[in-house]
Fold Aminopyrimidine aminohydrolase.
Amino acid sequence: MKFSEELTAAGQPILNEIIQHPFVQGIAEGHLPRAALTFYVGQDFNYLNAFIKVYAAAIQKSQTRADMAIFAKQIDFILNSEIHPHHNFCNVAGVAYESLQHEAQAPGTYLYNEHMYHAARTGDLIDIVAAMTPCPWTYVEIANLLVKEGKNTDQNVFKPWIDFYANIDDPDESLLPQFFGLIDREAEKYDRHRLDQVKEEFLKSCEMEWDFWDQAYYQKRWQFVKPLKQANQ
Ligand SMILES: Cc1ncc(CO)c(N)n1
């Protein structure tokens, strides 16, 4: 079994929980509370800014231009394409996207961002990519399942969201095969103990994906601290 297959097999139970989550079921059925949508977009804007910076760290640890090109393309994707699903949620909630770009960072976002930064600071390329992969992996799995179940109807207000993430699985884009291919290539360099650490990093990101939906659905904020709003990001 390839190491990447081992990762997705181990992540499957968490993916199942994500798919069952009321936020994801709300996307499937076309109904979500406005507060959940706006909380999600405010936090995801913050999260994706961190994600761009972690891609920059992956470029720093890349040995070839082919690897650099994979990450560079993804930075462009976040900056210029991944604004569309955010706009979809904002349109449904009836709020301006710009009004959600300075939200205070919630605890789950802090934890997930710091988990990726930790891999960037202390890990090798494989640790960084393993911490990042559950982000595209779980979204593509969700979107593909919803398409398969025929949930992206014209009546579903979240059709643009579903279609967007289902399409990033396009064979021409091939982001996930590239990420998993890179993980399998790098995995050759490490012993079993080290790969178990990488697997744990991957699984923690899977769990934080679940928590990201949960955090937005229940608007889980700091209990006692009143964090500052984010400056321009
Ligand atoms: C938290 C999170 N995970 C995955 C994606 C998909 O890129 C996203 N936008 N946000």
In short: The chain has one domain: 3-217. Residues 60 and 151 are 40 Å apart (CA to CA).
